[in-house]
Design goal:
Catalyzes the synthesis of GMP from XMP. It is a single chain. Helix 1 links the parallel strand 1 and strand 2. Helix 13 runs antiparallel to helix 14. The strands form three sheets. The chain has a nine-stranded mixed sheet with strand order 2-1-3-4-9-8-7-5-6, sandwiched between helices. It has a five-stranded parallel sheet with strand order 12-11-10-13-14, with helices on both faces. Helices cover 31% and strands 24% of the residues. It has 522 residues and is an alpha/beta fold. Bound molecules: adenosine-5'-triphosphate (ATP), xanthosine-5'-monophosphate, glutamine (GLN) and magnesium ion (MG). The site of magnesium ion (MG) has 6 residues, from loops.
Amino acid sequence: MDRVSPRPVLVFDFGSQYVQLLARRAREAGTLAMIVRHDLPVERVRELNPIGLILSGGPASVYDPSAPRCDPRIFDLGVPILGVCYGMQLLCDALGTPGGVRSAETREYGRTHLHLLESAANDPLFTGVPPESIVWMSHGDQVRELPNGFRALARSGDCPLAAVVKTDRPIYGLQFHPEVVHTEYGQTILSNFLKRVCHAPGDWNMGTFLERAVERIRCQVGEEGRVVCGLSGGVDSAVAAALLARAIGDRVVCVLVDNGLLRAGERDAVVAAFRDHFAVELRVIDAADRFLERLQGVTDPQEKRIRIGHLFIELFRNEAAAIPHARFLAQGTLYPDVIESGGGADGPAATIKHHHNVGGLPAELGLELIEPLRDLFKDEVRKLGIELGLPAWFVGRHPFPGPGLAVRCLGPVEPRRLEILRRADAIFLEELRAAGLYDRTGQAFAVLLPVKSVGVMGDGRTYDETIVLRSVDTDDFMTADWSRLPHDLLAKVSTRIVNEVPGVNRVAYDITSKPPGTIEWE
Ligand SMILES: Nc1ncnc2c1ncn2[C@@H]1O[C@H](COP(=O)(O)OP(=O)(O)OP(=O)(O)O)[C@@H](O)[C@H]1O
Ligand SMILES: O=c1[nH]c(=O)c2[nH+]cn([C@@H]3O[C@H](COP(=O)(O)O)[C@@H](O)[C@H]3O)c2[nH]1
Ligand SMILES: NC(=O)CC[C@H](N)C(=O)O
Ligand SMILES: [Mg+2]
């Protein structure tokens, strides 16, 4: 992100899955955010002249001797500090909490009720936040006792210290995550921190992103360079392609790989949509057989992604080899793909899954990557797509992962199983659209389990496959809640799948949020 506002808020990265969300919420509040290493020395912090500091969450436990820590001198700078989850545990530990930080008796993941204490009534951090609200938690450790010189501001059912503040300095700790969209007043709290506690002017805006991104692409590609752009028909690659077209015109060649793992009718739909909305060349590579061959007998989800990622790159490389000056590969990589793949090489973030386009890439790429959307989230990319002139129905499409049905076909990926999944998925989406609910859900799809169960159909015994329906509500795909779909719709989809898809005798509906689940099953 570019420096427009002179004084940034620094987000110290302790390996949270949500570190960029903190930065993004700051952007929404009109403040430039810079993500920095968790152990940035205080001298360097001073040079950056921050308006405030945010300490992110993270997978470690502060009582673990190898846990990441910050330079303790940052607490004496006099700059406002907000510690979130691990960040709160760390600052309480560093400033001295008598009972220490320990593993909690009850861990909290997902939706929790927050109760503000009377002491929060006049605190600027909670201006505009009602006494009771919903927050999202994701922790197993807890600060046991109020640190010396702190005041408690809020509690939850299982966590007596859900928010604390130092009485003589603007140092706050929150055990819940204000940065996730499911925390009802999260943006209010972060915006209060920036505007009311740090006194940030709030004049940064996203409009400049487009111009700067175009400039950066021109600069990277040069006068002659050509770019191969992996185009999936999804929103991210379409927006990346449109951005490239704006920056370098017909020096971009889009490549759609038909990997045999696409949904029913997808390939034709993408080709048609592309023809109508883009002025650049699109090539389609038929590679279904090669992907299926590579996936034969593979059941481990990470291994599936890695094999798929590698084959994608081989195909892009072959394509680029035939085009003069094509040294670049563009992908619609977003921040969630990056952070879930483990963030950076030596960062403290845990690997949740190797997204095929990041963690699944081979060591030797042979092409220079262009990923203009790497710092952004899905809904920001959608806004950018609209600015670039893509139609609203197109940018509103549900995401579909690059590894496609392979990561929804749990167990071995075989043509027979893919066909079952494809048909069940098509029925679910058709009914969701018919009920007018497609645009009100974030992502919906079917999953085929490697589990058979007993049923009775036509008075006879069956022993057949299980389909799970998954539908989630989310804007940024970092956290998600399961969609409360009408029972009548679920009943209709279930009946149609069992009646119309041979080999399936049972349909289940997934009622797990993220966290603790992920959106995909693999
Ligand atoms: N079948 C495909 N052919 C070519 N490139 C692909 C294909 N599938 C994925 N990619 C590349 O991998 C990137 C990441 O895939 P991902 O599914 O996250 O994004 P997307 O498909 O562009 O958008 P969406 O999230 O809406 O599905 C894409 O932006 C694209 O560059
Ligand atoms: O291109 C992709 N390659 C991948 O390997 C991959 N894995 C997950 N996804 C998509 O990312 C979003 C978050 O998914 P999860 O909650 O399952 O991690 C959801 O929208 C998922 O569909 C992927 N996209
Ligand atoms: N999300 C977090 O920051 C978690 C912090 C710590 N690892 C815990 O489990 O409590
Ligand atoms: Mg996709």
